[in-house]
Fold:
Amino acid sequence: MHPSSPDPFYLQITRRGKHKIFIGMAPGVGKTYKMLEEAHLLKQEGIDVVIGLLETHGRKETADKAVGLETIPRIAVGELRLLEMDTEGVLARSPQLVLIDELAHTNVPGSAREKRYQDVEIILNAGIDVYSTVNIQHLESLNDLVARITGIIVRERIPDRVLEAADQVVVVDVTPETLEQRLLEGKIYAPEKIQQSLSNFFQRRHLIALRELALREVADTVEYEANGLPLVGQVCNIHERVLVCISMYPNSVQLLRRGARLSNYMNAPLYAVFVDSSDRFLSKSESLHIETCEKLCKEFGGEFFRVRNSDVPGAIAEVAATHHITQIIIGESQQSRWKHLLRGSFTQRLMRLIHQQHIDLHIIATEK
Structure:
């Protein structure tokens, strides 16, 4: 090899393409249209954009929006010669950006890969950026929940990791009323399917629940990414999270019930923490009390933590920071006056520690 020739090993190394997913609550919200709209803007800026796979479902507005964008022809696959995306054709064309509709699609038998998202991963690994679309009901972890909401089992699904690995997730949102109007106007399905759709998947209560799922999923992604940024002392808490502080006092059971009501009201996860500050083993009755609190917490669907630390406020503040708590519930202080004078108020010390975390502190008066 000539000394100035590049090493073939380095020639094989390429950056992974960027993946942007347009997600919605149901068919017809405008995911594909939004994807095409952005593609035209990028093309005007000189970006090499092609359509790898477009599903218009007969929607004229969507088909019209694709005019002016190069399309990679589909290929016939399998014994029935059904048309699928030409992944190898996309790789050979090697554009800067490729648009691929319906990420959860199952390829026809005889295809090189079973699922379309697997084709997308091949394209991304080749250094090509991808814009794709998917509906929230196709997410694997939500499959059972969507079935309970709509009574429909969604067969085509994508692993959660596909959404988690995306570089950007955009929710394309419309109100249930707008979506129903689009359906009635024939902009989503053919006229003969409209009434059946309104009676099944497109029921108003289904759309409301699916819309909340889509918005919440993207909010979770934004919060996770924001908290991963190197911002010292700052967190991004989009969702509420409730932490109940358990002590040896019997009123801990009352606090847990109060916390459970608050978490239900806020639609927030519930956590409970017991900080053991003593140097001795707990007595049988004390251990039973903590076990009762832990069992009750789990009955409420919460998560229970046991921490051994002589600094109780510090331990609580650490748990709160780790789990991005937004609401802390403690009982009214039952410290003796001497302890209060010698060590300061437990409540004041906790408030100082959580001040920068923007956490609300609830001090509940209970029976002594």
Q: What stands out?
A: The domain at 242-364 is CATH 3.40.50.620 (Rossmann fold). The mean pLDDT is 83.
